[in-house]
């Protein structure tokens, strides 16, 4: 075999050798490097997990309060709602004239309790009452308010307010109505 043939044979085998080196050494190394890079990014974010967990816990508590679930995870009872309404009536010099039992509706996985109550008093006091109920954390949401005037005589005029508020309770336990 001449040197020229050896040279051509060697030159022709270089691409196969390079392909073999790539398949055996380079490709697995690149694959492991990319996997390591992904894991290092995941672990880099774990430094922030306690802060993220605290933030998510606070958001969950806030959502529970909006849904009408108190700090212990229990839904608001009718007694809680009635006692809060009565205490706010006393604080704002408003008279509670009517409060029928709540209407409960199960919608998918949520129990919706609608409370209706009728109040009478001065306009300013009624607004203060409604503001106090609306801004109370962990309590029901006011969904509708209707003011109207009742004239018994030409001299006697009474301002009434009919308000509807709702609590939303996640239906984990399969409530039966």
Write the topology of this structure.
Blueprint: H1 3-45, H2 49-67, H3 78-91, E1 95-98, E2 103-107, E3 110-120, H4 123-135, E4 141-151, E5 157-170
Using brief descriptors, characterize the structure shown:
single chain, 177 residues, alpha+beta, Alpha-Beta Plaits, 2 domains, 5-stranded antiparallel beta sheet, 50% helix, rod-shaped
From the alpha-carbon coordinates, what is the Rg to the nearest angstrom? Answer: 35 Å
Are there runs of 5+ residues with pLDDT below 50, and where?
Answer: none
- What kind of sheet is the major sheet? 5 strands, antiparallel
SSE order: HHHEEEHEE
What's the CATH topology name of the largest domain?
Alpha-Beta Plaits
**Count of separate structural domains:** 2
- The amount of helix comes to 40-55%
Strand content: 25-35%
Q: Shape, please? A: rod-shaped
The average pLDDT score comes to 80
CATH class of the largest domain: Alpha Beta
Structural class: alpha+beta
- What is the first-to-last residue Cα distance? 97 Å
CATH architecture of the largest domain: 2-Layer Sandwich
- What is the CATH superfamily label of the largest domain? Ribosomal protein S6/Translation elongation factor EF1B
Number of E-type strands: 5
Q: Figure out the total of helices.
A: 4
């Amino acid at each position: 075999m001449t040197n020229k043939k050896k040279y051509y044979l060697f030159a022709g085998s270089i691409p196969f050798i390079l392909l073999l080196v790539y398949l055996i050494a380079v490709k697995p190394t690149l694959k492991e490097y990319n996997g390591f890079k992904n894991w290092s990014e995941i672990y880099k974010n774990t430094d922030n997990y306690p802060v993220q967990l605290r933030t998510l816990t606070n958001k969950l508590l806030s959502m529970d309060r909006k849904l009408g679930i108190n700090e212990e995870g229990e839904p608001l009872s009718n007694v809680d709602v009635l006692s809060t309404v009565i205490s706010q009536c006393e604080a704002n010099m408003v008279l509670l004239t009517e409060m029928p039992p709540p209407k409960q509706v199960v919608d998918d996985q949520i129990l919706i309790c609608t409370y209706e109550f009728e109040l009478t008093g001065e306009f300013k006091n009624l607004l203060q009452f409604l503001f106090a109920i609306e801004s109370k954390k962990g309590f029901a949401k006011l969904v509708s308010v209707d003011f109207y005037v009742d004239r018994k005589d030409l001299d006697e005029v009474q301002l009434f307010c009919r308000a509807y508020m709702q609590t939303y309770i996640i239906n984990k336990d399969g409530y039966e109505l």
